[in-house]
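Hi L.,

As promised, TRAPP II complex, Trs120 family-containing protein:
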Amino acid sequence: MKINSLRIAPGFPGLEDHQQIQILVVNLCEDVMIGGESSFCKLLNRLNDHSVKKVGDQEPHYVYIKFITQNDPLNLKFANLQVYRRIFAVIGVAFLNDDDNIKETYDKYENLKKSCDEDALVDNRLLIFGGNKEKINGENLREIIYYENFKDTQTFNYDIQGLLKNVIIILQSKRLEDINEVKRCPLLSGEEKYQVGLDKQSKNYKKKCIGRLKKQIGDLHMLLGLPSQAVDIYNIAIENLKSANDLLWLAAAYEGLAVASYYALIGNEPLYEGKKSTVQRNHTINNFDTKNIDGTYKNFKKHSRRNSDEFTKNISTTFDEKIKLKGFLKNIGKLTIGNKGGFIDIPSIMDKFILSIENFERFSYSAKIEYQCVIKAASLLFWEHDFIKCEAFLREHIGKYLDDSFVTFNNFEKSSICVDCANIFKEMNFMRKHAFFSRLAVLFRLHVSDEEPRTENDYKYVYPLLYNTLTGYGIQLKSPLDINKKKFNLNISGPSQIQVKAIQEVFMSSLRGGLVHSSIRHLCFLLQNYYDLLDQKAIDSMLDELKKLTSKLQDKHNLNQIIQLDYCNVLIPAVQWTKFPTVIDIELKPLKHNLDINIITKRGSYGDIFIYSPFQQGHNNVKIYWSVDCYSTVTLKIINCFHFELTVTNLILLVDGCDFESIPIKLHLPPTIKGQQQTIIDVDMQGFPHSEGTLKFIGYSCEVLGVKNVVKFDNEQFIKTIRVLPKLPILEVDTTLEKQLLKEENHFETQTEVTLFSGQKFNHTITITNTSDTINIRNIRIKIQQPKISGGPQLISILENFNKDFILLPKTSKDFKISIYGIDPTTAPENTTETFPVSSLFSKHISDNNFSIVSSTNNLLFSEIDEQQISHDLIPYIGRLLNSTIKITYAADLENDNNEIYERTYSIGIAIKIIPAITISNWHVLSGEDASTRYIVLDVNNLTDYDAELNYLHNKQLSVQAKDTCRVLLLCSCCGEISPFAFSHASQRPSFHMQKEEIEKLRRILEDHVSNHLNIKWSIPKLNINGNVPVGSLLSSVSCLKQLVVPLLTVTLSINMKPYTSEDDIIVYIGDIVTFNITLLVSTKASFNFSGTISLLCFHDLQNGEEHIYVPESLISIGSLVVPFNVQPQQSDGLLRIVFKKDFRFMFRYEGIYKVKPNIFLNKCNNIEEQKLLQSAEKEFFISTASFNVTTKGTK
């Protein structure tokens, strides 16, 4: 049964000493270890369960037993003066074997009893465990208790209770002895020689004897738990001792009276450990532990003493309630004792202690018990929480014991006095006072003469004293790694320079005391917390000392382990070296690109709801996931604050939540040069998670400067959390493409390269393999990121794709084929984005002579854009490197509770180098053989150093010399699938994106229509290569392809009854009549009526982009100048139908070169929509122009 005592520290003089019956327990033989623990220690623990005994039924009181293992000589000397110092029983313990001599055990047991005061011994026991039972004999068999072994002790509690019962009964009988007749006089040890010649029949001598006997009876009452009755007896003893002038015993009586009064005030009931609440004692209870007139005890309620920890708790009363309570206790806070009506309160109890101390001062040989009385008086003030008076009392009475002139105590005893005072101030939370007396105790302890040098044991003794002073200077001693206790402030407050000196003193005491681990721990604490305050010389000295200490150890000193010094019961907390090295940031890295995971729910959601905000642009909010058994990386940003290169070994990460195998690494961190910026080193820490769940990185561990350092992050910004997914399948990819060595910062798992000439086409195979042993792969998708081609074949095309339901089983493979086509490298775009500017609707091709391509019509939608502002590709014809990516996305065939799909993507980078071979530099669209055909004229360049041969229109061949250009004429029919109003409708779409899509749709129709006519094959015999001429630049030109659409109106010409199909000049004379036959054709797609007029225009064409000069005066018309026409919608086969034919006659008046062109003017329609269509279609009319060279007669 363990209780809270009124004792400040173990071995400390306490008030409860007066009510504890001492029993000496000694091990007489060699101890036996059971389960790594001493059997004797276990026996003591079992005996301590009997430390409190309840006596009496009607009016119970408590008797306290104190089991001790050694006797104090001071107690033996003053056993008669203060009865509580006596040994009332002896328990000998012997652990025997069958071969042990039991007679030796008997002799030791008898000698043990003789070493004590045999007259004071009440009863004794010899406990024998093991041995031969038959050999047990002797005179005192009653005192011998035999047990077969330590475990088989079923009657142990009964036997001990029997011993305690005998002791209590005998003490009860002694306290009831009649002492009115003086039969003996208690004497101190050695006092007999002073009794010679005394008149023992004198009245003074009788009072002296009665007073001493009464004092001993009072002590017995205290030991038996009757403090109230003891008060009356002590008062009687004091009266007699005063009369007899027996001052030493009077001092002891005053001390007993003070202690008995205090216990009468607070009660004798024990307070068990763990009891949270205490009963508020009532100071108005009268006649405590007294009897009524008829001899019966009064019925009252016992009150337990206060809990020693209660003063740390706040009283939940208001300020006014505290004031009222204080006044109430001041008036009635006294206890009526006995029939004399005396009142006892705390001040009167302190007066009794002071009287006791004053009388003890008269005798030099009682200085030790005088000092113990002072400590007990201070303890009373301490338990009453009157800390101010307690400190003043100690300051008044302790000083004389520490004075150099007080030679009764040696330096060791003065050191013990300082330790006792330090313990009291520590319990009162007077930490500066505690530090002062602890350091004073060290000075007394180490103050030796020159002939007696200080030993290692001296420093071991003073080390805990100095170590415990650190809290007085604001230094925290609690381990920051203790997560089981409440979080506290780790900041060190107080004067830093004093703290450094205090820690250095502790370090020196541990160093000289041979405590290597403690010395290392204090050095590391100094460097961690005070590095910025130390000068370079001091730092170098500490590092040298640290190196010497660590070299003495076989194993690395672990800063994370708490050091326990058993000899002094000191626990040195762990230290975290967060400065050496200093981690300023931690970053979780995603897995490799082919291992990176994207989580998709089966509902099709890709995570959180997306809300667009322009403020989020540029921020990467992609979540990072890891997978079991995947190579993972964490980046630490580390700084070395030392001026020398720091070597860090076995650096690993500390995690929580999942199994994680961190790969240890070794670092050599560069030094920090004074005056320069510190170098930040990025350290990639690798590891493998081996279980799924939430993985939390809580710190790191390393070995640095000879010690093992464990750091657990307390900054929430450093504690990173990541989700670890289950083990997923990995796709392995092989290809027939030529692989390229990976370069730094390459984001592709496989980098390949291809070199080909423009127009060439190659097929390749890509093989994918499921490397997993158990998990299927499904939902395989292939996506190609490549430069966007506005026309013609794509750079890379997939020849065979995967079925949606295809599943790749474990350890199986699958092939798919791709084709790579050499596009014109001079027209490939710069980026691979899908969006393109308005200018991409036009041709981006520029000829060698940098002349712009002039179309016969203007662009319908973007006519306002200046062609000079269009960005063109001006890369020289020396080859082009185009980058493309094939991304293979696949999902793991796994079922999980969250309905999630885990996807990965494998990327193949392809660097395609296209060498220009046979390309197109320029093109024109001219009138064809009739109104429904057009001639496409291509300027074909041979950019190689070898002659090439062209094959087109199935059977036509043409040779092109090296670095030369040839012209190829291709006849192409117009496209009848597109209405002449189609591009007008596209321009009226409500958004640019819709306009772009509609125009691209029309462009693709025209591309499909004309691509078969543009199939020009080339071959270079010397290189044994062949291919097709890339016409993607032409096919991407909307302005060019629009000319292949049948316009609303087409005008064809015949001059003098001959069709005019070329652009050559017709030579005529001045005055010759020219018959200009006009045929007007309308598209069969026209669906409404419209009308207009046709006239002739004559002008000079100055070329070079200059405006035309109209010269109507040079033309003399014969007949009608303007001819009207009317178009009615009709059903007709073919692309065009003839509206009418008309002959114009004219002659030229002057010499020169003239252009004559029919001019069509349309009348306004009543329908607004039809009028808009006519206005847009008017720009696309295909009208031929005739050229005339007019001369005078005789010059032809």
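Residues 273-334, 336-341, 483-491, 830-878 have pLDDT under 50 and may be disordered.

Thanks again for sending the construct details.

K.
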